[in-house]
Design brief:
Chain lengths: 355, 355, 355
């Protein structure tokens, strides 16, 4: 297999120092084309050293350039070029942001693509080939819609939002500004609602609501968010959802809540603000989770949870109780032996006493 | 963020009363453009009142129009327009169906799209832009295939079936009439079959079977159904699958079975009729689940289950046993303390007796 | 519902015997158009008999032709045509491979499709309609890219790799030779990385790494593999991933490891060689799993595991301990009764002794 070197930028140390308003120590002409952690440094990459715990790595790193704080005093000889800045971590982060923005810099409408004549689009649109914008939809400024993405009818998309390749936005969805919707995500598919008929078959309950996604939300690859039966499924400002998550019809997810992959939330459940969920959590329908709730991975939640709780396990328990319970759980076979031993001893004792 | 009002219809109260063969009480000229629950009523929307438990909401609802039963006698003054009908719930449902059908009314072939010259399509086809119909495939009447959907070669699709944006139907799949396949669903991907080789690597076992989906089936967004190794993976009439479900090769899912999101069923398992599964259930391969089986959320099933059982937990237990078991499970730390206490007491007793 | 017969080939018994260098016994002109298991045999299909345990089925099978070993001596009269070969199982497997290759024989570039002018493609490319190849990407020889698949910028794809309909490969991904990426899979989506801000909202950490998939890897439908924050998420040679799996940023999955559907692996975890995971397994981030580890379905792994272990349960335990633990778990209600009984007896004993 031929493995190419990934190039995400191409700068000399001096250029980077200029951008960061720092000073070079060493070869100002050395070029870097990627970033790396200082402990995994590779030639041609740039690393940073902020946490003194990592200082030992700077003496052996293979990175070509390392960002360091102004007051860094090496204790041994160095083989790398240094760039001294006020705050090495912040400088590194702003450099990453710059590269990221540069990489995502795309504009123009590739052909063939499809924009319904009743749709409107804003300034600086990127529309990839084979992307689709349906009837009466309104797309804001500086929006990027990657190839093969689908925007149905009557959809609203705010400014600066990115919709990656093949994401699907059903009719009537409303998406805020500064959102990122990853590839394969499905927004607004029908809620799972069926009324049983007498013969055991089901009648579909029409799903006439929509999905509302507020600003600054990120939705992971292949995550699905169903529309409401009536009204709206709501994902509030700042929510971050990982990949392969299911949010059912009429749910509401509060501001700045983050969920790891493969979480499932059943219909009409309200999740508060600033929650954090591990992977594969399952939450029943029609319950309420408060604010600042933390739920450990694989936890099964079937009852409402008050604010500020941390829960774990199936059924969900307070974290302290859960940890104690699982310790005992792992010793169940020994516990049964002890119980049997006790029974035996008690029997002997009884027979002695009676004998 | 600019949040538009969602408009799903635009009727006056009198028009709706005429359609439902009901009578108006109040302002016959008031317009409604959406539906809402009576307890969440908003101006410009239509609600219904059927269950007397909800009667209290009609006196304070902000809905503009409420459907009520003919014999409804308000106990207080009302601010809303009423439409009296024989059965308010049924009338509301038929109105939703009408709106739903109206919203999904699409026809015509958008360009560019791809129909292989050897494929055949029926009357009143809707084919979205960038949709694909492969060699020798046969598509029935009144079928809707949304943008970017893929229909491979030798596929058969029955009448009135809807395939939403970006769903992928592999070669040789057979899909019945009146089915709905949601965005991103994958039908007929290769079964997961590999034969180990002596060096620890694997040889792919060709997956030459197909998927057969009978009539009236709904498949959720991003759900995957693998083709059989030989023969068919079969989803029977009336089955409803939620989002992100995995049905492996050679499975069979019986009539009118419904499954919530993130369920996984391993290869060659047969599921009976009228089953109901909660979310994130996992079922092992090569087992048989009877008819009318209910499986609680997150349950792990590794053995066959007879008809009419309700099971819960991992490992799956009869619901009664499971509920009792989980009650004790949550008290394990206390139980261990009790056990330790008993040991101590018994030891004391013994030493007294012996002493 | 009209259910067509699936035709995957069309050969006479004599043609097949010639190809397999075998000899026909019975009607050499009978045609077969599909394969079946001997116990499910249907007219017009070909089966095989290798394992003597299945011999009873050959006397009643409805298959038209059965491959048997040269030395097979029927004990009763047969109604099927036999083809005698050296090794019936191997002959059947090579026939399946042939049919499989034949079915997947596709070439040419369908229109409209999109190849950026800076991209390069190899010999015998199949590029389906509405497929996309972005800037500077390099596609090897004999690659098949199905309709609506997306290959971003700076992507490398090795020889003989197949990318099914609608799979999405983000920028900078590197994919080896002889790989199969199924429909809807997403390779290289952003890792889930956010830094908390003081107001409770999050700042996105740019995800500038990529995904490297080595040779002979198969990725299931709708599976997602995130790019690394820096560096690469690595899927090594011979790995086989089922559908709807999540591999987070900076993970590494060792050679020939296989995982069933709906598994989730959190960020920066290293998985060794030749592992086997059941469905819905969850693995925490930043841990290390050794070589030859087997993990039972639905197991939750939060700590590193050494090579050659087999684990099951949540929390993960050695398989022997897990099986014993679950036996006791199911008897917890009885165990509590026993404990209560013991307490009572002990109390009585004490009161007698003291009395």
């Amino acid at each position: 297999m031929h493995r190419a070197k990934k190039i995400i930028m191409d700068f000399k140390a001096q250029n980077i120092a200029d951008f960061l308003q720092g000073t070079v120590e060493g070869d100002a002409n050395v070029s870097v084309n990627n970033v790396s952690k200082i402990e995994d440094g590779k030639p041609g990459t740039l690393s940073f050293l902020a946490n003194p715990k990592y200082e030992k790595f700077i003496y052996e790193t293979k990175s070509s350039v390392v960002l360091v704080n102004k007051d860094f005093h090496p204790e041994k000889e160095l083989n790398v070029t240094l760039i001294r800045v006020d705050d090495a971590y912040q400088a590194f982060a702003s450099l990453l942001d710059l590269v990221d923005q540069f990489q995502k810099q795309k504009s123009g409408v590739e052909q063939p693509s499809f924009i319904d004549e009743s749709a409107s689009t804003g300034k600086d649109l990127y529309l990839g080939a084979f992307a689709y914008i349906g009837m009466s939809s309104k797309v804001g400024d500086n929006v990027k819609i990657y190839p093969q993405a689908f925007v149905g009818s009557n959809v609203i998309i705010g400014d600066n939002t990115i919709i990656f390749a093949g994401a699907k936005i059903y009719d009537n969805s409303i998406i805020g500004s500064n959102c990122i919707i990853h590839a394969g995500a499905v927004i607004g598919s029908d809620g799972f609602g069926f009324a049983p008929k007498e013969d055991g078959s089901y009648r579909k309950i029409p799903q006439l609501g929509n999905v509302v996604i507020e600003d600054d939300v990120e939705i992971g690859a292949n995550t699905t968010i169903d529309c409401a039966t009536m009204g709206s499924t709501i994902i509030k400002k700042g929510v971050k959802l990982d990949n392969l998550i299911q949010i059912a019809h009429n749910c509401e997810v509060g501001e700045n809540t983050v969920m790891a992959a493969l979480v499932g939330i059943a219909g009409s459940t309200k999740v508060g603000k600033n929650n954090m969920y591990g992977g594969q959590v399952g939450i029943s329908g029609h319950i309420t989770i408060g604010d600042n709730v933390k739920i450990g991975p694989m936890t099964g939640v079937s009852n409402s949870i008050k604010s500020d709780k941390t829960v774990l396990g199936t059924p969900a328990m307070d974290i302290d109780q859960a940890l104690k319970t699982y310790v005992v759980f792992r010793r169940l076979p020994q516990m049964r032996e002890q119980l049997n031993e006790l029974k035996k001893e008690l029997k002997e004792l009884k027979s002695k006493q009676e004998g």
